[in-house]
Please model this.
Amino acid sequence: MATYHIETYGCSSNRGESREIERALRDGGHRPADGPEDADVAILNTCTVVEKTERNMLRRAEELEAETAELVVTGCMALAQGEAFEEADVDAEILHWDEVPSHVLNGECPTVTPDAEPVLDGVVGILPIARGCMSNCSYCITKFATGRVDSPSVETNVEKARALVHAGAKEIRVTGQDTGVYGWDKGDRKLPELLDRICDIDGEFRVRLGMANPGGIHGIHEELADVFARNEELYDFIHAPVQSGSDDVLEDMRRQHRVEKFREVVATFDDRLDHWTLSTDFIVGFPTESEADHERSMDLLTEVRPEKINVTRFSKRPGTDAADMKGLGGTVKKERSKAMSELKMEVVGEAYESMVGETFEVLVVEEGTGDSVKCRDGAYRQIIVQKATERGVDVGDFLEVEVTGHNTVYAFGDPVDEGDDGEGGPVEGDDPAESAASSA
Model:
């Protein structure tokens, strides 16, 4: 029997894969160590979204190599840029995530079984419904790691979801590199059917749909919006990264949508749902982005007013076509990023300010800083409840809260059955901001 230490960086898919690795190692008789220095093997599940992240991954790999007997590196950076670790003189095995258990187990018994415990993190169940995507974006390095989409059957994913609910999951996060193209590789778009089937599982829980590219969901956006409208288990939340408000830039990015398709998706959800949260992403400073293109992105952000916005300054990723394009100056990218980030805070702050004084049913999904908990309303907006122990509020609870204040990107709320104690907003000494940010 060996001991292991695992660290995970990046998106929900990476976290789900790490849980699968841990499940397999536990089934094989291995156990977690107290830290890397006590482990027989350390596993680093990497992310490679931007250059800064890449540098952090290399630095952490160097630290782990010095602290543990053996290092295994997996995840997106390992698969897309495995040579970077060798160039940095990091002595590690570079493996696909599903190769990690067999490498660590080294043929030992008992063998890994496919029907082991579900992937569960607190009351949050992470359900990767497929791996890979159908896109070929010119700036993306992750595609080198994940490949084309590979979709298990609806029944397989429903059974995994049912196991999560039976194991105590109150929130199921449906994840993938692009959930909108689930089933495309099998010749049929299966996401609406899958979500309907998951919502039919017995139990009290919520479902959050992960990132879906506008081009992937456009062909099913009306059917998908109807699924949201008829299933209260689904958070009314869509993460559809538009990336630019300019069709010329989208063409150079090789995105599978244009701005009008994105608008049509938004309009359909506006029509079907009383209130919902749009989450989207913008890449600022793409090599071919002109000042006019940037203004089109700013105008689109102002027009659709998403309640969650990720702004990323373009960085060249090795091996991608965009890396060979003549880039914009750092000052230009910095100025455009600053302008969009300021607009983002204005738009998001306005959305959360509009919640003050309203009452919402929420699910308590996890602990925050101090004695606070993080909750999600029906549109997946984040509401912080403070002094949770005193108020008898626990992770996994469903409750009604009145929003008493906000801090731009999240709100504060009090349980309504307590009455108004005049203490809405942040409690002195607490700083929930550092743990309030959520993943898409």
About this structure: The first strand starts at residue 3 and ends at 8. Residues 107-118, 419-440 have pLDDT under 50 and may be disordered. The chain has three domains: 3-105, 120-353, 359-436. The longest helix spans residues 330-353.
